[in-house]
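Hey, sorry to bother you again with one of my protein questions. I've been puzzling over a protein and I'd love to understand its fold better. Take your time with it, there's no hurry, and the full record follows here:
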Amino acid sequence: MAYDEALADQIRDLVHGEPGLTEKRMFGGLAFLIDGHLAVSASGQGGLLLRVDPADTPRLVEQPEAARFEMRGRELDGWLHIDPAGLTAGKLGSWVERGVRFARSLPPKLR
């Protein structure tokens, strides 16, 4: 499945002007990176792939639209999949802001 281009445009509008922002195709989607760290992605599986503080994962997955992202059969703390059905305008902005805030808390990657 290809990523949702309309969702990618909505994310782009929300992150426009963020210092250190780049876009990159990865994991079958379109990722938005802050200083080299993935913050949020329009996922190739639909919805969002989101980077969050691993300590917040147990609380965040209590929300019906959120689940731990699974890679190679393993659920990962600090990575969430947000179901597209739960992405109302207000919720999308909140999730994107959370991903950007966490990515910004990490030291910039060397290029």
